[in-house]
Amino acid sequence: MNAAELIGPARPLCAALVPLCAANGCAQVDEPRAPATALKVPGATRVDLPDVLGKPVLVVTPELPHDALAEGEAASFEVEFTVDLRGRVSTSGVVSSTHPALDRYVLASHRDWLYAVATRADLCATRRFRARQRIEITRRDGKLSSALSVAEVLEVLQRVDRPKIDEGTAPRVPNYRRVMNDIVYPTAALRQRVEGRLALLVEFDADGRVSDAYPVNAAYDEWGFAHAAIAAARRLRMDPPPEERLIACLPVMFLIR
């Protein structure tokens, strides 16, 4: 069984949204996991992350004061922000709010969110953009819950197309095939017969070694695909090494055979 194979147009991995326990108890995000496209394939299920630019893939619920909202009370905020090429919030500000006293708490948590920066059709092209996010928070049964929507992308500020790591093409990675064949299929995914597709952005230093690797459009996955792919990607070596730091794209597909 080959644990993973390179594919051309890769798809991102389904990412779970991470709830945060605040000072007043565990907050709950109404959308605990990004809506997934579940595709039945022979003998398995394949799950892909939606490829909508501006989709939150990691959400942190604000830590509000205990008495910030009464039972059944709701607060609404609109945050305008910019996202870098890794999906991280780089600048942000509240443009409208029903509870201005809570704005700083909302901004503090929103700066730790991550967003989708690529599409399935072109997963190796990431975008830096300016967007607006609506966040609604309600206290129900003593707990906070957040209703989320896809951010409205106002302006694409930059698009960067990353070269794909492949056999016989630039950038040249001689141990690519061996590393890919050695990826261990995550036990939980194999047990549940789940297949996964994702892509990594891999940073090579000037000596040809990998200094960093991170998934596109995915902050976390419950099956361990991203962890397995990142662990393998760190063993890649570029030869000849680049003259300066280079970021390349590594599409990966986990298949059950």
Structural description of this entry:
With 257 residues, the protein is mostly beta strands. The protein has a domain at 18-161. Helices cover 11% and strands 39% of the residues. Strands 1, 5, 6, 14, 15 and 16 form a six-stranded mixed beta sheet that branches. Strands 4, 8, 9, 11, 12 and 13 form a six-stranded mixed beta sheet that branches. The protein has a two-stranded antiparallel ribbon with strand order 2-3. The radius of gyration is 20 Å and the shape is elongated. Residues 1-42 have low confidence and may be disordered.
Class from secondary-structure proportions: mainly beta
Note poorly predicted spans: 1-42
Total of DSSP H or I helical runs spanning 4+ residues? 4
**pLDDT averaged residue by residue:** 80
- The total strand number stands at 16
H/E element order: EEEEEEEEEHEEEEHHEEHE
Q: Kindly report how far apart the N and C termini lie.
A: 6 Å
Largest sheet: 6 strands, mixed
Helical proportion?
10-25%
Q: Whole-number radius of gyration?
A: 20 Å
C-alpha geometry: elongated
Approximate strand percentage? 35-45%
In brief:
It is built from four helices and 16 strands. The chain has 257 residues and is mostly beta strands.
List the helices and strands and how they pair.
Elements lengths: L3 E2 L15 E2 L2 E2 L1 E2 L7 E5 L2 E5 L7 E3 L15 E10 L5 E9 L5 H8 L3 E2 L9 E16 L2 E6 L3 E10 L14 H6 L5 H5 L2 E11 L5 E6 L9 H9 L12 E9 L3
Parallel strand pairs: 4-12, 6-14
Antiparallel strand pairs: 1-16, 2-3, 5-6, 7-10, 8-9, 8-11, 11-12, 11-13, 14-15, 14-16
